[in-house]
Amino acid sequence: MNREDFKSTLKEILDNNKIGTLATIRDNKPISRYMYFYNDGLTLYTYTKQDTYKVEDLEENPHAHVLLGYEERDDLGERYVEIQGQASLPEEVSSDVDNLLSNLGKRYEKLKEEGDLQIIKIDIEAARIMNDDDTEPRTVEL
After folding, report:
1. What is the pLDDT of residues 106-142, one digit of tens each?
2. Of the four, 24, 43, 120, 132, which is 20 to 30 A from 62 by CA?
């Protein structure tokens, strides 16, 4: 799979899978939790309350790991993607990202109204698509 095909397949997985895990590092140990993810192209976004361990973890160490996918496909295996990225904690986001996240429902709007909303932006540095047909998994730097 060439680089452009890889990016296209990666975007397809991101577009079609919104629940995954976010792993951060706390006290030199990985901690993982389920999150909803939304993408703008090949950039991931999620959100949380401001006063959470994951925010503290990312302030201390911005390296993040995300698993998304595990789609059942007839006779093809359960395709998913492993993502390594740099997380940031923007104070504000573009109106496009705000609209994307506001479609998530009441929790997003409630946290936003309360001033307790923290967006997490993950710029993908490398990704690895697993169980994709007969293609051997390989990590692609983005």
Report:
1. 788 888 888 888 999 999 999 998 876 666 776 778 7
2. 132
Compute the residue count for the chain: 142
- pTM, entire model: 0.87
Q: What is the distance between the alpha carbons of residues 123 and 3, in angstroms, rounded to a whole number? A: 17
Cβ count near 138 (within 10 Å)? 10
Nearest to 116 by CA among 36, 47, 50, 45: 50
Domain 3-133 has CATH 2.30.110.10: yes
51: Cα separation from own chain's centroid: 20
| Residue whose pair of structure tokens reads 């990590």 in the numeric block | 139
Domains of the chain, residue spans? 3-133
Q: Are 115 and 105 in contact, with CB atoms under 8 Å apart?
A: no
132 membership: H or E segment, kind and range: none
The predicted structure's pLDDT at residue 100: 80
Q: How many CB atoms lie within 10 A of CB 6?
A: 18
Dist CA 84 CA 78 (whole Å):
20
